[in-house]
Amino acid sequence: MNKEEIISKVNEFLIEEFEVSADKITPDAPLKETLELDSLDYVDLVVIIEGNFGIKVQQEDFVAIRTFDDLYNYIIAKSSQTTVA
Amino acid sequence: MNRVVITGIGIYSCIGKNLDEVKDSLYKGRSGIVLDPLRKQFGYRSGLTGYLEKPQLKGVLDRRARIMLPEQGEYAYMSTAEALRVAGIDHDFLEHNETGIIFGNDSTAQPVIEANDTVREKKNTMFAGSGAVFQTMNSTVNMNLATIYKLKGINFTVSAACASGSHSIGLGYFLIKHGYQERVICGGAQEVNIYSMGTFDALGAFSIRENEPTKASRPFDRDRDGLIPSGGAATVIIESLESAQRRGARILAEVIGYGFSSNGSHISNPTVEGPLRSLNMSLKDANIEASEVDYINAHATSTPQGDMSEAQAINEAFGACRPPVSSTKSMTGHECWMAGASEIVYSVLMMQNNFVAPNINFGNPDEFSAKLNIADVVKEQNIDVFLSNSFGFGGTNSSLIVRKWK
Q1: B186 counts as catalytic
Q2: Which residues in chain B are closer than 8 Å to A41, comparing Cβ atoms?
Q3: What is the DSSP letter of B71?
Q4: pTM score of the predicted model
Q5: Under an 8 A CB cutoff, do B129 and A41 touch?
Q6: What gap in Å lies between CA B165 and CA B10, rounded to an integer?
Q7: Which CATH number fits domain A3-84: 3.40.50.720, 1.20.58.220, 1.10.1200.10, 1.20.1560.10?
Q8: Could you report the per-residue pLDDT of A20-74, keeping only the tens digit for each?
């Protein structure tokens, strides 16, 4: 899966799960504020990422993920680790 | 001592999704019972159940609120939203005026089973999701409604089997009467999913008159063969008379008596003496004579033993005056944790509209129900005072007395 496909897939499930309008999602937009995430929502975010990409995600990793672009890059990096492994 | 009045009622049940629909069903004697083939496939001895549509809450509640609500919580949201509208109470009022919540609920089977099935499959608890814990606790209805409505008063759940809803109102009444709360949202909620009633079905307590679903619930009838599980939610908003008058609320009725008792006997077999003590305690608390009660909404679930014992208890306390008696469970089935609250809503609707709802399917009495004045058809009459009974496993009994506000 290339980056464009990953972005498209991520946006699709974020829009569905967190009921946010598509035009609010831009690479530089802040993830937490845009999706209105509270502490509980990170559990569901981890579950849908793991469910959609088959990668292991730690909640602590989200400390460094501030924008949507950070999230795409994180998933790409994790996915390639999984593939290599 | 404060006087305690009812200023809001709301209902979401198998005989209607709001007060108007339910009033119509009560008057017409419409049953909400169906045969659910899925229950038979699942292994139920009886596939009979109350049927109700799932509320559509997308666009009404945000995602966070919705994923924490189990089935019965959704019903309770619907009934509570209606009751608050009736009471003229909005979100802003609740944020600034201490209001409590005591809801009756005694199971939340589906979320527990589904969450653990998921964890078993994935071998990772996180896959249960962030909403599961709030759905799987018995206090789920309370915690969700208290959060949605930002309630700041008392907040706990009553689990008292099939008397849960009734005790919730009784406890709210006590708190207001004695000055600890001005206003309490009371009620009862009951899940109707396939997981919720299998263990009850195991006892062989449900009717197997599956060829005639709407005739299967027949409280007090000689040929009854068991209850039909049902559910939904009912909300009753009670407050001190002073609070209601201060905010110019329309007063629907007054709670004047609460009685309770425990049989101190078998876990499921009823007694006559236990309910009788509850009945008499409620009359004493209300400071009225039995002859002042115009209508009794019986607990009668359509089980052979339960109805027989209640008939004897009612006859013991009311034999001299014989007020009309009906069990609305003949139409709704047994709404279990919700029943004690829904039957207050049903009876208030009758009181407001001057009729006694029929005990449908009452064809022939047995030895004990023959002594009661059972309304087998709708009866147009004034109701100034009614009494509602609720009994549950473990021998818990509750009786509430409500008077018309004039």
Answers
A1: no
A2: 64, 130
A3: H
A4: 0.96
A5: no
A6: 13
A7: 1.10.1200.10
A8: 999 999 999 999 999 999 999 999 999 999 999 999 998 889 999 999 999 999 9
